Structures
1.
Amino acid sequence: MVQNLKTDVLVIGAGPAGSMTAKWAAKNGARVLMIEKRQEIGSPVRCGEGMSKSWLPEVGITPGAWINLEVEGARIFSPREQVFEINEKHAGNEVGYVVERDGFDKALAIDAANAGTEIRLKTAATEILKEGGKVVGARVKQFGEPFEIRAKVTIGADGFESQVGRWAGLPTNIALRDMDTCLQYRMTNVDCDTRYCDFYLGEVAPGGYVWVFPKADGLANVGIGVQLSKVRGMADPRTYLDAWIAKHPAYSKGKTIDVVGGGVSISQPVKQSVTDGLMLVGDAARMIDPLTGGGIANGCIAGKICGEVAAQAVHAGDTSRAFLDRYEKGWRAKLEEKLYRNWYAKEKLCTLSDATFDKIIDALQGVRLEKLSVHNILKAVHDKYPDVTREFEAFL
């Protein structure tokens, strides 16, 4: 029989946000236990495997063997496939490195372990423990054996479906229009340009986009995200992706060697990410960029803040919501404005026709933007097609 455990900080979920939280809590002197329901950290992969790189030093990540490629930037294709190129610096959360996501996740878990975190695999939370309305840990099962882990601070890092948040009574409901259903093939024998991550807009992927992230010469992740409110059946993403591939000779001759699928939130951040004894981080707090679906950078940036505040709470002997609110304020100061702005942009973009997307990309031809933002893009489009920007007056 497994013995009940006690720790300062319990982190539920060993994805990037969880490992980052665990690392920085341990580095700041807390006793940390991180649990993961799967038997292997980082697997199965549910990610396009593209990410930006400018934020890595901020959270103490050293580039490693998990990098496949460093790309120059992104190419955005209109429905009639006119191209707008963006350099890596301005291309957003998805562009900079193409990585082996399972290797990346393992590297972050190793960093957390080296900082002093204890890690337990095949250990799933089944219920939150509460005393007097305060979260004090979780009931878990490891290899089918139930036991309790008592913790001064509990961290929910269990993805956008977060059960931990619901169990704790935090508002985590999500609308269908705020979810994408995604499917990705890893394909070999393709003609991909290893300098760019490519994005295809319009009705080829209703409410989302098709992406091509090169992994090496002749090898790429080819995937699609479709807004859940726009699909009629679970096979729709595959139908759309297969149709797109069939129309592109560079990929139709390719061979699929791996298939992954899953859901991604494209919502606003949660209204509340802390309560007495508990904090939510990463996808569990809806920190995924609603415009791109990228969540690694935001989760890690928030994870550092979360880990530091967790350790501070332990040392202060105060794990109340009032104390933990410094995490809420910290991550919102860094991320919230862009998350809400990109959610609003996503809401508008989902209503645009292919003809409008074509006008937007056409208007950007030859335009050099000092800084890539929704505001600057719309200003450039307004100069050529003012009718297109009427729906976006709040951004101008």
2.
Amino acid sequence: MVVDDSFYMQLSLNEAWKYQALTYPNPPVGSLILDAFDKIVTIDAHKEAGSAHAELLCCIEAAKSLGDDKIGKLSSPILQHEYLMKHYKDRFKDYKIFVTLEPCMHEGKTPSCALLIKHLGFSKIYIGTNDPNSEASGAIDFLKSANTKLFFGILKKKCDKLIYPFTKWQKNENFVFFKLAKHQNGVISGKRVSSNKSRSLVHKMRAKIDLLVIGGDTVRCDKPILDARLANSNNPPDILIYTSKDDIDRNIALFKIKNRKVFIEDSLKKINDYSFVMIEGGEGMFFHTKDIVDYYLMFTTSKFKPGKKINLDANLKSLHCFKNCSDTIEWFENIDKGKSKCTS
């Protein structure tokens, strides 16, 4: 089977989307390396702010594929980067590397990926889109100056959608996404709809967001905790309970979590005070927030359940879909954001 460059970039994108909302404020980034025979050596992605970048992770695995058992024992991205710079100059001159985002030029919590890629001597470099961060950009011109064959703009629009939360952060604009869990037939009733693995993923996201928005009826009926315990995190988000009637029981566990603020308001204006916002809810919350939501994240179980199906009246565009245990997870773009003016 003959495949083109976009095939490998799509594989890199697929890996990166698994970590959407988990790398914030860093962008999710995917990378892939091919050997001299165009065989995939490895695919990986940046997983969390401050951790190794996707390009470095792939270079580490490429070194391991050559029989290097030392690099995996190094304890930090800085040490791994230094090791590759010392022992692998021009060792990948017959290899190709794909990366969804322009490699970083600056020295931050992790060293420059652009410098590493140039030093290792990749024969061809494929980049999806440019870095909107002026402090980290510049790798494209830098790598071109090294007489490297560089191909830019592979699946650029898709790569731009992947890093949209990061792009908004760069502009000091907040990013708002709506999380919804439903059964295969569209019924959302029940405390635990999605799998334990999906619930753990949501808790990891809660550990990254600044504010979690939820409706008053959900709090009254379910009495949720809304923490990030399944992610072993002590960094719970602040809570906005959106309701027109303030009869919420302040003695439930939601109010007992340390290091968080809980607001009970009949307006969504509080969202403007936060950078990274997740909304959880059903049909009513969906309607009241669809003018401010950027992306939707939907978990769909393989099970069917009797009950009323949710009516999602919105113009959504699918961005990425993948399986997580027994659930299907799909990210959507809100095409109609800002058009309905339905929020309070």
